[in-house]
Amino acid sequence: MRVLCCLDGTNTEWLAQQALALLNAPDLRLVLLYVVDVGPGHDMERMRQRYLGLGQRGADLLAQTQEAEQEQGEEIMATAQATFREAWPGGTPRADQIERMMLRGKPEQEIVRLGAALSSDLIIICTRRVLGPGEPPHPPGPKSVGHVARFVLDHAPCPVLLLRP
Fold it and tell me: What is the pLDDT of residues 69-123, one digit of tens each?
């Protein structure tokens, strides 16, 4: 069973506990996915060019931003892989049972595209974010799901497990 598990950097421990408790299969193979959302960066660059015309300085700022996003993504992926390895049912998983992938693009589209490309049996995604202790939950309803989860639910090539706190 190949499962695409989507990360946002805020819910890793909770997601690992929930996913592995539900998917205690001996042939389980997880693909941990983190998508660097390019939308905000491109929007900022267009505004910078339009109003400030920074030229090379603007390009340098964009490169620095992309480098920081890459570093953050790598840190999120390493933490997630360690968390999933520790929570793995029955001990340590084989090296081929947890794979990491980091993509750049619109998260909702990249999740659906990768789910199809990998012939995933299941996509796991969380609603917006997992809340910390003492934080009030989002009220039930359309806004509690978020646009990424909504898009994945509507367009995924396989079943979707939507986890909410």
Answer: 899 999 999 999 999 999 888 788 888 899 999 999 999 999 999 999 999 999 9
Does residue 59 form part of some domain? Answer: no
pTM passes above 0.85: no
Domain containing 12 equals 2-38+72-163
CB 108 within 8 A of CB 121: no
47 domain residue, yes or no: no
**Alpha carbon distance 1, 100 (integer Å):** 16
Question: Who contacts 160 (Cβ-Cβ below 8 Å, separation ≥6)?
Answer: 122, 123, 124, 125, 152, 153
Asked if residue 125 is part of any domain, the answer here is yes
